[in-house]
Each structure stands twice: as structure tokens, then as C-alpha cells.
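Backbone-to-sequence.
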């Protein structure tokens, strides 16, 4: 006498080939792929409020009360510093423009008649990486912050027959640290118009678009 058997279901997730620099990050994706998508409005307004200055950004320093002290646009050096005509060198990388303004003011306040400093970001080196089920994976270079969806569009858009647009992963390196933050986002909700808030990327973020599970 034979007993009916239930056909077994197997799934075959295929992880797209990654470049060597992103291989370790792919492992991080595997550890978090089962987490629930985070809402896209998670901290979005705060993320876009001010860019954190980084090495290579071009900044101009203005002294409205003493224009003769104005500093032409200069890049933030590899050591994270910029030079001032008074006060010498000062750390800039890792600060927002407002924080840098406050620090410059503290440094030179006694030498100013008008306690006012203006930091202007002339150009920002904003690079992110997009990998996975997109048409043109690779490095995306921009001079302004990008949303996750904008970065994907810059990479040619989703491969819609393969892309899992509900579980897009952002891998973010913590500034000054050695750990990674992993954020899973439902980008399809933005495409469908169900989610209006946007999630802005930070320089160095990796956007990984996974492949849909294939059942057979």
C-alpha cells in the first residue's frame, strides 16, 4: 500500500556576483534578508537636513563682518582639515557645515568685530554604490544627496522580472567606526505611491537589490 506524498518545495535564491570590495557586504545581506522592511520615512528629514562634510569636499569660508578674511573655496584635505587666515588649521571632516561654522567662530571670535561666520559647500563628492538586480550596477557619483530610488534609476533602473523591490538593502558604514548598519527598505511602496517620505543615502552607502526567490 502506498501513501500519498506531498511534493517538496525548494527555493533557489540567486545572489548576483559582486565585486571584491563588496563581497563582505554581500554576506551581511544574507544575515538580514529575512528582516521586515523598514518604513522609508525613518529619519529621512534629519538625513537630508545637512550633509556631513568629508575629505575632498570643497568649502568656502566667509566672514560677513570682515570680508578681507574670506577664504576662497578649498578642498578638505586627507587629514580632514582646512586652513584659515586667522586661527590656523581646523578639523572639518565629520562635521556638518553648521558645526564647522560654530567651531570656527569659537576659534576666531576674539579677532572679529562681528561674530558671524558662513560656511558654504561649493562641491561635494557624493559617491554611492548600487549592486544586484539593476541594469548598470556600479559606482554612482553625484554632487548632492540621492534617495534610494534615485540611485537605482542612475544605475539604469530595476530588472523588474528579477528584482525584489520590497526588500532593497542599504549597507552603511558607521562614520569613524568599523561596523555596518543594514537597513531593509520597501521601495515598491514609493513606486506605487503608497509611501511619500523618502530615504536619503549617505556617501559610501551600498544599495543592494536582491533577486526574487524562485520557486520550482
Amino acid at each position: 500500500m502506498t501513501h500519498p506524498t506531498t511534493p517538496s518545495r525548494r527555493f533557489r535564491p540567486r545572489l548576483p556576483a559582486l565585486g571584491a570590495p563588496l563581497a563582505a557586504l554581500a554576506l551581511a545581506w544574507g544575515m538580514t534578508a529575512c528582516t521586515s522592511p523598514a518604513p522609508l520615512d525613518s529619519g529621512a528629514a534629519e538625513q537630508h537636513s545637512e550633509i556631513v562634510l568629508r575629505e575632498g569636499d570643497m568649502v568656502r569660508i566667509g566672514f560677513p563682518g570682515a570680508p578681507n578674511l574670506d577664504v576662497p573655496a578649498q578642498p578638505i584635505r586627507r587629514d580632514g582639515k582646512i586652513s584659515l587666515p586667522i586661527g590656523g588649521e581646523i578639523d572639518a571632516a565629520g562635521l556638518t557645515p553648521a558645526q564647522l561654522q560654530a567651531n570656527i567662530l569659537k576659534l576666531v571670535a576674539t579677532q572679529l568685530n562681528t561674530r558671524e561666520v558662513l560656511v558654504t559647500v561649493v562641491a561635494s563628492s557624493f559617491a554611492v554604490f548600487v549592486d544586484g538586480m539593476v541594469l548598470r550596477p556600479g559606482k554612482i557619483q553625484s554632487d548632492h544627496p540621492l534617495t534610494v530610488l534615485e540611485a537605482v534609476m542612475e544605475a539604469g533602473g530595476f530588472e523588474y522580472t528579477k528584482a525584489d523591490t520590497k526588500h532593497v538593502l542599504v549597507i552603511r558604514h558607521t562614520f569613524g567606526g568599523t561596523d555596518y548598519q543594514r537597513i531593509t527598505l520597501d521601495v515598491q511602496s514609493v513606486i506605487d505611491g503608497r509611501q511619500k517620505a523618502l530615504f536619503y543615502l549617505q556617501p559610501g552607502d551600498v544599495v543592494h537589490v536582491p533577486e526574487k526567490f524562485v520557486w520550482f
